[in-house]
Amino acid sequence: MHSMTERFTDALHRIDSDRDVGPMVELTGDDAELVKLDEHHQTRGKDGARTFWEDYRNVFGDLETTFTHSVVGEDSAALEWTSTGTLRSGKPFRYRGVTVIQGDDERLTGVRTYYDSAAFIQERGGTA
């Protein structure tokens, strides 16, 4: 799983810098399940992975992810990260989270990501 972890982080950096989801889609198995913080953001397979990662990247203007810690097992890894940049609106943000990946050194079978959604809450204009 060490090789897949490196390939995953490299592919994510490509999404950040170039908006290129191709390398991440290539890592994804045909039956992989991808899930964001809640079950309303869940996709499957390569087509689902393309949608999952494009939807993720389209939230942001500039984006940079730094991986801060990882725990790698035989068939899964937990990757802690911090992302900074701007939202599409231009508002700066910083948020942290954990992504759990499952699979082997050839294909991802699962991706689950958990993050601090407070960075995405827009301020309401003067009303309570």
UniProtKB/TrEMBL annotation:
Q: Where is the SnoaL-like domain?
A: 7-109
Q: Extract the Pfam families matched here.
A: SnoaL_2
Annotated protein name in UniProt: SnoaL-like domain-containing protein
